[in-house]
Each structure stands twice: as C-alpha cells, then as structure tokens.
Design a protein that fits this description.
Blueprint: E1 3-5, H1 13-22, E2 27-28, H2 30-35, H3 39-51, H4 59-66, E3 71-72, H5 81-87, E4 92-94, H6 100-109, H7 119-124, H8 128-132
Parallel strand pairs: 1-3, 1-4, 2-3
C-alpha cells in the first residue's frame, strides 16, 4: 500500500480519486467496495471493532480487501486508521478535511438524505448494523 487517505466522505474524495488515477495509482474507493461486494466484509470489521463481535482486523484482512489497489480512501477506511497504519507503516498518509459547517451541509444534502428514503427503514430494519450504528428505523 502506497497511500492512505484518511478523510471523511464529501471532503474532496472524488477529486482525489481522479488525481490519483492521473498519477498512475489504483485507488480503493467506496464504489470499489460496492462493485467488489466488500460491504459485508466491512460491516463485519465494524462490528468487530466497535461492538466486539468477531475477529478484529489486521494486515491479513486488510490485504484481502485491498488486493490490487495501492491507495485507500473514503469510508469506512478512516474508521480503521490505526489498523492501516500498523499494516502498512511505510505508506504516505494524507488527511483530507473540510470545514465542519460546509461538510455537514453537504452530507445533509446528499448521503444523510438516504436515511429519509421511504424504503430505507424496511431495507435495514432487520440488520444488526442498522441497530448498532444508530441508523433510524
């Protein structure tokens, strides 16, 4: 792993992906987690880390999901900063950030809106992650 970008979504991540690709990197972005079917794996990792359910992730688990990529960014990667730093100590680390007020406005007008979709509660109400992470149901 060459680059760890540990900022939150809506803080320039799409611009960073574009720039990284132009520089010849292969970034592991949120869309890759969807396309590759990694979201259930990350849910397991979140449950292990924050709820004590399951095995904590280390280098072997990170290697499994980031294989073929040389940089990571976007959620849930920032929630595993310590694990990434331990697994890839020679990586360059970047923290992309944004002022809180515009960040929250952006999140409220995009990602947080999903929580208000009529189908959101029925699609998640039975999942442990919806209850564990305070997703409104």
């Amino acid at each position: 792993m060459k680059v760890l970008i540990m900022g939150m979504p809506r803080s320039g991540t799409m611009s960073l992906v574009t720039a990284l690709k132009q520089l010849g990197y292969t970034p592991y972005d949120f869309i890759d987690r969807i396309i590759l079917g990694h979201l259930p794996l990350w849910t397991e990792a979140l449950h292990a880390k924050f709820l004590g359910q399951g095995k904590q992730w280390g280098k072997a688990e990170l290697d499994r999901v980031v294989k073929g990529f040389d940089c990571v960014l976007d959620v849930p990667c920032p929630f595993f900063t310590e694990e990434f730093l331990s697994a890839y100590p020679d990586s360059v680390v970047m923290l992309n950030k944004r002022d809180p007020e515009p960040w929250l406005a952006s999140m409220n007008s995009t990602l947080f809106r999903v929580f208000n979709w009529p189908s959101w509660p029925s699609s998640l109400s039975s999942t442990p992650s919806s209850q564990a992470f305070g997703i409104p149901i």
